[in-house]
Specification:
It is a single chain. The protein is α+β, with helices and mostly antiparallel strands. Helices cover 41% and strands 30% of the residues. The strands form two sheets. A six-stranded antiparallel beta sheet has the order 1-7-8-4-3-5, sandwiched between helices. The protein has a two-stranded antiparallel sheet with strand order 2-6. The protein starts with a strand and ends in a 5-residue tail after the last helix.
């Protein structure tokens, strides 16, 4: 399970350190792809395979299903950690998520999200303002 928030910088070669707290659960090999809200999603291989199976059930005759699966899978790369716990982020993914220097890693249960610091701060501020209202709408149990 992934949780917490960590900040790291991308180096000049497009590499970023994966937070040590995430490395064991992530494994040596994992998948990075375009996520929602201009973030990147990072999945352990077993989790990625479950998502792949679910997406295979979408009807290819539906335009939205085709668009989503094309976008999601075409951005996916299998990645590995180097000896320093870093991963190289492909240029197309860095550009999509506007990852140029400062990045935020966010643990979201079964995945990690990587955000540019600026986009994360903006998103967080908006979400924080409506957190109570959102919780009231979607959560049907006591936290």
């Amino acid at each position: 399970m992934f949780m917490g928030e960590y900040q790291h910088n991308i180096d000049d070669k497009g590499r970023i350190i994966i937070p040590a707290k995430y490395r064991e659960a992530l494994g040596q090999s994992f998948v990075i792809t375009r996520g929602l809200d201009k973030s990147l999603f990072v999945y352990p291989l077993a989790e990625w395979q479950q998502i792949e199976q679910k997406l295979k059930t979408l009807p290819f005759t539906k335009a939205d299903a085709r668009k989503f699966t094309r976008f999601f899978f075409s951005g996916a790369v299998e990645a590995e950690l180097d000896k320093q716990g870093r991963v190289s982020l492909p240029n197309n993914l860095r550009t999509y998520a506007e990852l140029f220097k400062e990045c935020i890693f966010v643990g979201i249960s079964n995945r990690i999200e990587i955000w540019s610091k600026e986009l994360w701060e903006s998103y967080y501020q908006d979400a924080e303002e409506s957190f109570n209202e959102i919780a009231e709408k979607i959560i049907d149990f006591d936290l």
